[in-house]
Design goal:
- Chain A: GO terms for molecular function: cobalamin binding; cobalt ion binding; methionine synthase activity.
- Chain A: Belongs to the methylamine corrinoid protein family.
- The complex is a heterodimer.
- Chain A is about 55% helix and about 10% strand.
- By secondary structure, chain A is α/β, with parallel strands linked by helices.
- In chain A, strand 4 (about 175), helix 8 and strand 5 (about 195) form a beta-alpha-beta unit.
- The radius of gyration of chain A is 18 Å and the shape is elongated.
- Chain B has one domain: TIM Barrel, CATH 3.20.20.
- In chain B, strand 18 (about 355-360) and strand 19 form a beta hairpin.
- In chain B, helix 6 runs antiparallel to helix 18 and helix 12 (about 365-385) packs across helix 17 (about 440-455).
- By secondary structure, chain B is an alpha/beta fold.
- Chain B is globular and about 80 Å long.
- Classes of the chains: A alpha/beta, B alpha/beta.
- The interface of A and B includes residues 104 and 180 of A.
- The structure holds cobalamin.
- Cobalamin sits at the interface of chains A and B.
Chain lengths: ~210, ~475
């Protein structure tokens, strides 16, 4: 088995200590950092994605794999120029004003990170102004809004309006989710997308950012 | 007569040994003392600091174990909820069990059109009216989120509907302290004043930490208002095992217990002796679908542990029953809800909510409510157990009837057969009579019953004066939330 295949295997098995050691060994052996990512770490993560979708792997196992991938990436980051760092896109995410539910949002964050997105998680109870500020600061391709309460859903609309007022709406896609949210609500408030779970949230972002 | 268990001479089930309860208690005390909690409420932090808790960074509070002991000492072991007439209705103590609905489902499974749609005010009024009639539904929660009122008014409007459509006690969800204060006002109007409400509480408030280990400002605000006004309160973690509490049942119990005890401590510091109901829930995260699912075997065991801890602490207990993950009222709905109802009863959980929940609390079904009413009836009969007094042993009757006789004609049968359980919905006909009655399945019979109740049952109304007062409280509240916006 080549080192690349072994590294992919360690990611698939969620063996983060092993993945860290092997990544270090491959760096020391002079392998190309980008190749280590693409043919080793990412290659493993892609298999994880397929298995997860097929129901052969469960979320906590995916999390361990993602951890294995990121321990490797941490070692490689300093060796790669920022612009060459492969990323699926940058997304700012948060639970909206008045809402403290964050289990679903954290899951979305973890799943998207494991799919190669760079995520800035603002936390819970985030008002429109704070989203606007974060968009200015981080220039993400998309922002994700989460709400689990009927009362706080309204803040999603306010956030979209605030982005418009600041002239930022065209520069960033808005995706929304949470138990009471539906496609029709997304259409109503003029969001760019809605996803019902973390896996489809990842696909949605891939689609609209591409 | 010998008494078999905590349900008098009836059935009873224990999940934890005394030793296990102690292990969990000690582990929770360790979490309280070593990990502590973040409390987003200045007054509560100050109360705790003065009582001897260690505070860091302004809101990270570490609870020394003596505070637990002190709070358990002052908290009452029994709490009574009263109906609108002022009669004692729910005796939350020992192994008594009571059942009620859940709050705030997003969708209503309309039993007539079979649509899944948003709740309107008239739907909630009808649902509460149905609860008023069902003999085994002991209290109500708001059932549906109102889609046809200002979102900031939902909890107040729900309360106005509840208190006017049933005399039964309520368990209330309130968005914040202001909302709770308005609900207290409405309840006071209905029972004849605040002092009377304090003496004979018509409702309890359900408030909670945001697990793991955080207490939001609003939750504590409500807890303190409840303590001050003598409104019974819980502080019940709604855990999602694998996400907000540990995935093991024991770990989930340790954390949920620590959170409940921390609430109890704050509550008792504010008003020693104020009525507190101990308990919490756990809807484990299903690692395939990523849903917080209700009534899994682990969730049922978890509740058994929680109730045993309540008994260990001698506090009234709070829990769940009659709920399901199914999208329609089908076989899965009945299997899940029935198992939870029956186990909750055997565990001796004092006040169980969420009867009628479908789709992990997203949707509500009146069919499930009506069928659960029947399941609870069966369960209650089980809890009574076997009477072995002289009359029940029936030796004289057996002697009278003798070999080859028949008990149908005997006095003993005529005198006692009505002690047995009778179905309301279950069909005991032979095949021919069942077909003659329309070959109806249980859910169809449930729909018939819903229709019949809604067409005929009128709950006792509040007086015109009370109605006007409630209207006035709502009007003022509308102004208030309007001003805030
Ligand atoms: C756990 C829970 C809590 C916990 C939250 C703990 C935490 N740290 O998050 C606690 C106990 C604190 C809580 C509190 C309250 N809750 Co709550 N809670 C739930 C519960 C049971 C599960 C939610 C959950 O975590 N699900 C699991 C996750 C993984 O799923 P999810 O959140 O839906 O997320 C998935 C998708 O929606 C999507 N998604 C989520 N976010 C995003 C974002 C984007 C961008 C995208 C694309 C996708 C996406 O992907 C996620 C992963 O697959 C739900 C009922 C339910 N079954 O949904 C009620 C529920 C949401 N709560 C409810 C209520 C009413 C409350 C309270 C008001 C109750 C009270 N007593 O005060 C408070 C409000 C506190 C506040 N201000 O926020 C109601 C909401 C009704 C409504 N729509 O208004 C519900 C529906 C229960 C009910 N019927 O009463 N709750």
């Amino acid at each position: 088995m080549s080192d690349f295949t072994s590294l992919a295997e360690l990611v698939i098995n969620g063996n983060y200590n092993g993945a860290k050691d092997l990544t270090q060994k491959m760096i020391d052996n002079g392998n190309d950092p980008l190749e280590i990512i693409n043919q080793g770490l990412m290659a493993g993560m892609n298999v994880v994605g397929v298995r997860f979708k097929a129901g052969d792997m469960y979320v906590p196992e995916v999390m361990m794999s993602a951890k294995a991938m990121s321990t490797g990436i941490e070692l490689l980051k300093p060796l790669i120029a920022d612009k060459d760092m492969p990323t699926a896109g940058k997304v700012v995410i948060g639970t909206v004003k008045g809402d403290l539910h964050d289990i679903g949002k954290k899951l979305v964050v973890m799943m998207m990170e494991s799919a190669g997105f760079e995520i800035i998680d603002l936390g819970v109870d985030i008002d429109p102004a704070a989203f606007v500020k974060a968009v200015k600061e981080h220039s993400p391709q998309a922002i994700g809004l989460s709400a689990l309460l009927t009362t706080t859903m309204l803040s999603m609309k306010d956030t979209i309006e605030a982005l418009k007022e600041e002239g930022l709406r065209d520069s960033v896609k808005v995706v929304i989710g949470g138990a009471p949210i539906s496609q029709s609500f997304a259409d109503e408030i003029g969001a760019d997308g809605y996803a019902a779970d973390a896996a489809s949230a990842t696909e949605l972002c891939r689609r609209i950012i591409a | 007569m010998g008494v078999g268990s905590s349900h008098g001479n009836g059935l009873f089930f224990r999940t934890l040994t005394e030793k296990q309860a102690e292990e969990i208690h000690l582990a929770s005390c360790q979490v309280l003392e070593d990990t502590g909690m973040v409390i987003h409420h200045e007054e509560a932090v100050e109360l705790l600091r003065q009582a001897g808790a260690h505070v860091e960074n302004g809101n990270r509070v570490y609870f020394p174990s003596f505070l637990v002991k002190q709070a358990l000492q002052s908290a009452p072991s029994r709490v009574t909820l009263y109906n609108r007439k002022g009669e004692a209705a729910l005796h939350l103590e020992g192994a008594n069990v009571y059942f009620g609905t859940g709050s705030d489902t997003l969708n209503y499974l309309d039993p007539f059109t079979l649509e899944r749609r948003s709740w309107r005010q008239e739907d909630v009024a009808n649902a509460i009216r149905l609860c008023d009639k069902l003999p085994n539904i002991d209290f109500v929660m708001s059932m549906g989120l109102l889609s046809d009122v200002d979102p900031r008014m939902i909890n107040r409007e729900q309360y106005a509907i509840m208190v006017q459509n049933t005399e039964k006690p309520q368990v209330v969800i309130a968005e914040d302290g202001d909302t709770l204060l308005d609900i207290i006002e409405m309840a006071a109007c209905a029972v004849g004043g605040k002092e009377r409400l304090r003496q004979k509480p018509l409702f309890m408030i359900y408030t909670e930490p945001t697990s793991p280990l955080q207490h939001p400002k609003e939750s504590i605000e409500k807890l303190l208002i409840a303590a001050e006004n003598g409104v019974p309160a819980n502080f019940a973690c709604g855990g999602v095992a694998g996400a907000s509490v540990p995935t093991t049942i024991a770990g989930a119990l340790v954390q949920a217990n620590a959170e409940a005890l921390s609430g109890l401590i704050i509550h008792q510091l504010k008003a020693p002796g104020a009525p507190f109901i101990y308990g919490y829930g756990n809807s484990p995260l299903d690692m395939r679908t990523m849903q917080a699912v209700y009534g899994t075997p682990e969730a049922v065991l978890f509740q058994g542990g929680a109730v045993d801890l309540a008994h260990y602490y001698q506090l009234p207990s709070w829990g769940y029953a009659g709920c399901s993950n199914s999208k329609v009222c089908d076989e899965q709905a009945i299997a899940e809800s029935t198992m939870f109802t029956m186990m909750g009863a055997l565990q001796g959980c004092n006040i169980m909510h969420d009867v009628f929940y479908m789709e992990f609390g997203i949707t509500g079904s009146l069919e499930l409510l009506v069928i659960s009413n029947e399941v609870i009836g069966r369960t209650r009969r089980l809890l009574k157990g076997i009477n072995t007094d002289k009359e029940s042993l029936g030796v004289e009757s057996i002697m009278r009837v003798g070999p080859g006789g028949n008990f149908l004609g005997d006095d003993h049968t005529a005198k006692h057969f009505r002690d047995n359980w009778f179905p309301d919905l279950s069909d005991f006909n032979n095949y021919e009579n069942w077909t003659a009655n329309g070959s109806k399945t249980m859910i169809e019979r449930a729909r018939d019953q819903i229709k019949q109740v809604l067409e005929t049952h009128q709950p006792k109304p509040v007086t015109e004066e009370v109605k006007a007062q409630i209207g006035e409280i709502l009007r003022k509240a509308k102004e208030k939330v309007g001003e805030k916006a």
